[in-house]
Amino acid sequence: MSAEPMSADPATVHADRATPAPVPHRWLILAVLCLAQLVVVLDNTVLTVAVPVLTVELDAGTTDVQWMINAYALVLSGLLLSAGSAADRYGRRRMLLVGLALFGLGSTAAGLARTAEQLIAARAGMGVGGALLATATLAVAMQVFDAAERSRAIGVWAATSALGFAAGPPIGGFVLAHLPWGAIFLLNVPVVLVCLLAARALVPESRDPAGGPLDLGGVALSTGGLTAVVWAIISGPERGWASVAVLGAGAAGVLLLAAFVGWERRVAHPMLDMRFFRDRRFVGAVCGVVLITFGATGALFLLTQHLQFVRGYPAWEAGLRMAPFALSIVVLTAGGAAASVVRRLGRPAAIAVGMTLLAGGLALVTHGPADGYGTLLAGLLVMGAGCALANPAIVEAVMSAIPTDKAGAGAGVDGTMTEVGSSLGVAVLGAVLNARFGALLPAALAGAGSFPAALAAAGPDREVVTAAFAEALRAGQTVGAVAVLVGGLVAAALLHRADRLSARDRSAPAARADRLSS
């Protein structure tokens, strides 16, 4: 893809120009894209600190609160593939603007909600806008930057996502300390308005010239299948993995996704071209996204519990103490250091080194001295350095394995696999934590379903319960560190093998030609 210089009316990016001119203001465009991506990621975690307030002011039960938090992630993950396809077909700038508008409207509705049902519906609406933004921001970045600058741009985009993940709880806590809970969502509105105006003025339009009509069958099958699978993963720890609802939803989701694959192979204009999966680099990169996010997100989820329940920090302060993790990613990425190391090492080696650092930092936090903040700070900085290398390398591996005119589809796949891997990581490592905690509890407390419940029922044995939970967290975080390391090494090996086989396939015709000419 390439871009024409923009006039007062943003120019259209044409896919067929061989010598593209640099897009004016591309770094300013990236800042707008990152700001939009930041609010999308923030809203995955910002609500966690508001649970006590929402329970009282909206008279919300446990199920209501869970849906307030999960409705956003569930809708977002179910629509990512469809959103990416829509961006390619109808214009990435257009879908970026639509996503911003929907996200702004959903945020306004959430901030003004007066019942639990209204808030859940508004959060679902925000998920629709979030899916469009998560795919359009990455797809636009792929268009406005050439190959020489794309690695650094993707690194900045990935670092923004990490910053949003860590910044949610402290921002939410700060807002709640000074303003009503609705302000958590209403603060999104001015940010969205700024992004809307800037994107309309700066971002050039681009689309897949061979996009064809909307693949309605693919949209229905992928959305239904992904939503069912992610719901089963999210609900498994609470309802039980062997429950009829979880097994039924998981099985239905798998069947719908299998039908989606069959449909995409037959339809004339598929939303996701299944031929991409013949590319070893693409398959290796997609597997890597799932493996890496599984270990990393699950391990970080346990780390936040360690800070809150074992060290006793409130949610917002736990998030604040984890901020060096995200800030180190931003510093290493924005300065270009991470992109330089990735280019020098190559993507497979950068992923291996990065995930080894992440696993090592997590092991240091888990098994190092617990007194003071020094060990935690050192571990978070090592973890941040690892993510600064691995995250952009794996995103770039996915996006570079498909044509740039399918950037929306690539962003949809990357986002979907990230959501699936993250949900699995939280669910599986959470199950490890709960199983170990249950095994360590005294017999009289064996039926307690959670750490707060066990603590409330413990009476004079509160220290025993706290020690059991701390030990269970160490076990879960250790499994998470191993998962991070294994996932990173497996992903790196898959990509290295794919690169080697692709290089061999490219060199084979030349070798045959040399033999024939001699």
UniProtKB/TrEMBL annotation:
It is a multi-pass membrane protein. It is found in: Cell membrane. CDD domains: MFS_MMR_MDR_like. The chain crosses the membrane at residues 27-53, 65-83, 95-113, 119-142, 154-177, 183-202, 214-234, 240-261, 282-303, 323-342, 349-367, 373-394, 439-458, 478-496. Keywords: Membrane, Transmembrane, Transmembrane helix. Residues 29-499 form the Major facilitator superfamily (MFS) profile domain. This is MFS transporter. It comes from Micromonospora maritima.
